[in-house]
Amino acid sequence: MTGANHPLTGNFHVPAPENEPVHEYRPGSAEALSLQAEIKRIGDLTQSIPLSIGGKVFETATTQPVVSPHDHQRVLGRLSLADESHVRAAIEASLDARHDWSRTPWYERVSIFLRAAELMTGKYRDEVNAATMLNQSKTYHQSEIDGVCELADLIRFNAHYAEEIYTRQPKSTQGEQNYLDQRGLEGFVLAVSPFNFTNIAGNLPAMAAMMGNTVVWKPSEKSAVSTDVVRRIFEEAGVPPGVINCVHGDGKMVTDIALADPNLAGLSFVGSTQVFRQLWKKVADHIDTYKGYPRVVGETGGKNAIIAHPSADMQALLTGMTRGAFEFQGQKCSAASRAYIPRSIWTKLKGRLAEQIDSLVVGDVADHPTFLGAVIDEVAHDRLAAAIERANSLDDHTLIAGGTTSKETGYFVRPTVFETTDPTSFALSTEFFGPLLTVYVYDDKDWTQTLKLADRTSQYGLTASVYAGDRKAVAEALDILRDASGYLAINDKPAGMSIGKQQFAGARASGTNDKIGSPLALQRWVSGRFVKENLAPDTDYRYPYMGA
Ligand code: NAD
Known about the structure:
Elements: H1 30-44, E1 47-49, E2 51-53, E3 56-58, E4 63-68, E5 71-80, H2 84-103, H3 106-121, H4 125-136, H5 140-167, E6 176-184, E7 188-192, H6 198-210, E8 215-218, H7 224-237, E9 244-246, H8 251-260, E10 264-270, H9 273-285, E11 295-299, E12 304-308, H10 314-326, E13 336-342, H11 343-359, H12 378-392, E14 397-401, E15 405-406, E16 412-413, E17 416-420, E18 436-442, H13 447-457, E19 460-461, E20 463-467, H14 471-480, E21 487-490, E22 507-508, H15 519-523, E23 526-534
Parallel strand pairs: 1-5, 7-8, 7-10, 8-9, 10-11, 12-13, 12-20, 13-18, 17-18, 20-21
Antiparallel strand pairs: 2-3, 4-5, 6-23, 14-17, 15-16, 19-22
Bound molecules: nicotinamide-adenine-dinucleotide (NAD).
């Protein structure tokens, strides 16, 4: 459908966005029983996960199994892998769809995605959750807040921000009309998403498409089963053929082709710092051949610190460390993975922390008491096992809790805490992306130096937490940590945000800091054209100062 054919006239408003209520899934409740039935249904299937190009799905001869991390013999899906011809076809399909989609009225584009939000919170709520639980090993709560609530919230709030962007128009005066035409980018957008959040996977293509772009979407192969539910929801909601083209496959091959195409208009990436840097370099390599200057947006790794002042509330700190470092096995980009604790608090906290962490249940996420599932795959398991082994081998590192791993039935890593006396330890600066927290204990008098130490210890700048009762200490932390993170929590864990209230992204090596959950993120996917219409054109070239 093109704008020219659209029958509605008027200035329309999207519904005022509200956060999707989070279901609790208490044991034995109707919602828990319904979700458990869906987990059983999806868990018993081996789904075929196709590519989707130009509105058609393709199953390819080359496939890859997608397994459940906490039960790796369970094959949830067979993922069709794209070859070069599929990637080229996806680019072509997105370029073909661009003309009509970019001229479809914004409120119609937005209403298609709002419909998708209704489907994911209604008809498909159980399926999104079951797929996310099985495929990414998320607990009931972690899955509900990710794949259902946060994705629906992102769509609903982004619809509202889109309206804001389109409504913001220049001044017109008598005799002159001014228009800001917020065009989608010329070309196609390449969206490359990570495994860890179903909502990020869905939001990357949705956000660009909402603003009038057409997209080649390369999701992570590790979370392909849950991503595929989102793809099907978008299609059922009415996203037209060619607007979002989903190609699975080797990331390097897909991005090599897409980033070399002269029509690349933007790269929307979430994932590791190392891969983002490779992609940015490829964009730079092709700069002479692009038709424009592609927008490059990337949100990447972190080494997020919890920094406690001697005036901190110990119980709140204990809860923040436990949830902040170990929910979803520490595989949130925003998870805490280092902590700076004053000695006066540590002497009392250490035993309680060890006891609490050792009591956390690790296992099958369908079991209600489970707090941590498995890490995503064998590579992640081995990376964490190696880091634990290395820390254990160092005299200045002491194991406080956890420290064991197993990959027999699933890729399990016990939540692990080390204490180190080495402020430059690898464990305080390297992102391991798992349930590994390293604590550095400082003398109470060294608060200011500790803030400076935390600021310079890692290359990242994603999230941080400060726990303090003393407001002067908070003010000092806000000042010294000014460039250390894009998201700072005071007396709260560094992970976990609510769309519409908090905005998320980081700087330094953590990304381009285009705040997700804000109009800034959407603004990157439009390119303005200014139109001036003179209603009373001048008819004499001479100015008054020139005299008669
Ligand atoms: P990843 O970088 O391994 O993969 C991300 C995407 O890039 C996937 O689709 C993957 O298939 C693709 N890819 C992998 N190697 C590639 C290559 N050589 N060339 C091209 N594409 C390639 O990241 P991941 O393991 O899926 O996710 C975890 C990482 O993402 C962590 O570093 C985490 O901090 C980060 N992350 C950041 C944010 C944020 O908002 N800052 C959010 C989520 C995750």
